[in-house]
């Protein structure tokens, strides 16, 4: 069974002074902590055994917020990253937790929302090969960029190229097989002094064991690593929730709809949150069915 890695480390220097005393994944995106959004993405994929990696100074805060995940019918464990030295380092840190299992890794400041997203995530979870995603962006220089052939085969993936070969960036969500930690251990630091996740992914590409799924225009991918991005994400989520009357990336709702918790457990989760209106929303779910993807 595939396990999840939620990477919530890093120093958040692009957000200073906001993140000088609290990590960015604990900042709010509208009505929920930022970390709820990537956590819910893993849950939507059907992943219920998750390792959260954070800085040692933030560990107590994450444990106070998320506990062990059992309240949502999942399991959350924790590991620390003393110094952020690249995304591939997370796969090495997670090696004891994975214990040979395939994994999905998501960055703690990445937010996904859109039509059929749950089906796309679950399909990636069911594949035996590695899967990454492509998303059309205006500024590919800021991301890992996917180069395609005329027949739409992936030729290369390059980290933050000065001359991008396409406008398709690779979001911070990766599905790997059981060899991910093994491949990560062979990666050498880049010129930036980091263990680049692209170097792990390119090993899958060389072995012809990589699937790339292009996310459609109907899917939103937001990287909330700057003040402007946080403000835009908050406005986006607020607009959707107010218009539809449905919450985005609500772990209690996802857990309830997937049968991870029952209506008694949902009521217990709702009671401490009634004054915020969040609890009232949770209670309203007791009268709803879940025929479609609404998270």
TrEMBL record:
Belongs to the glucose-1-phosphate thymidylyltransferase family. Its cofactor is Mg(2+). It catalyses: dTTP + alpha-D-glucose 1-phosphate + H(+) = dTDP-alpha-D-glucose + diphosphate. The keyword DNA damage does not apply. NCBIfam families: rmlA. Pfam families: NTP_transferase. Residues 3-238 form the Nucleotidyl transferase domain. One of its GO terms (molecular function) is glucose-1-phosphate thymidylyltransferase activity. This is Glucose-1-phosphate thymidylyltransferase. Pathway: Bacterial outer membrane biogenesis; LPS O-antigen biosynthesis; Carbohydrate biosynthesis; dTDP-L-rhamnose biosynthesis. The keyword DNA repair does not apply. Its EC number is 2.7.7.24.
């Amino acid at each position: 069974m595939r396990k999840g890695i939620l990477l919530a480390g890093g120093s958040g220097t692009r957000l200073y002074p906001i993140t000088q005393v609290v990590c960015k994944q604990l900042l709010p995106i509208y009505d929920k902590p930022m970390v709820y959004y990537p956590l819910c993405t893993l849950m939507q994929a059907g992943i219920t055994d998750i390792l959260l990696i954070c800085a040692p100074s933030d560990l107590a805060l994450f444990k106070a917020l998320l506990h062990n995940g059992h309240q949502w019918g999942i399991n959350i464990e924790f590991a620390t990253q003393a110094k952020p030295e690249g995304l591939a380092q997370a796969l090495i840190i997670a090696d004891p937790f994975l214990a040979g299992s395939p994994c999905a890794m998501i960055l703690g400041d990445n937010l996904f929302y859109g039509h059929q997203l749950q089906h796309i995530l679950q399909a990636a979870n069911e594949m035996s090969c590695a899967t990454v995603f492509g998303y059309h962006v205006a500024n590919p220089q800021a991301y890992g960029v996917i180069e395609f052939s005329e027949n739409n085969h992936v030729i290369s993936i390059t980290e933050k190229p000065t001359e991008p070969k396409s406008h398709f960036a690779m979001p911070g969500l990766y599905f790997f097989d059981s060899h991910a930690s093994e491949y990560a251990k062979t990666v050498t630091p880049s010129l930036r002094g980091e263990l680049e996740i692209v170097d792990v992914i390119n090993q899958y590409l060389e072995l012809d064991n990589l699937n790339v799924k292009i996310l459609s225009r109907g899917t939103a991918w937001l990287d909330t690593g700057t003040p402007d991005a946080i403000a835009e994400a908050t406005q986006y989520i607020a607009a959707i929730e107010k218009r539809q009357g449905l919450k985005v990336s609500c772990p209690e709702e996802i857990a309830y709809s997937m049968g991870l918790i029952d209506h008694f457990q949902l009521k217990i989760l709702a009671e401490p949150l009634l004054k915020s209106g969040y609890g009232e929303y949770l209670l309203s779910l007791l009268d709803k069915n879940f025929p479609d993807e609404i998270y």
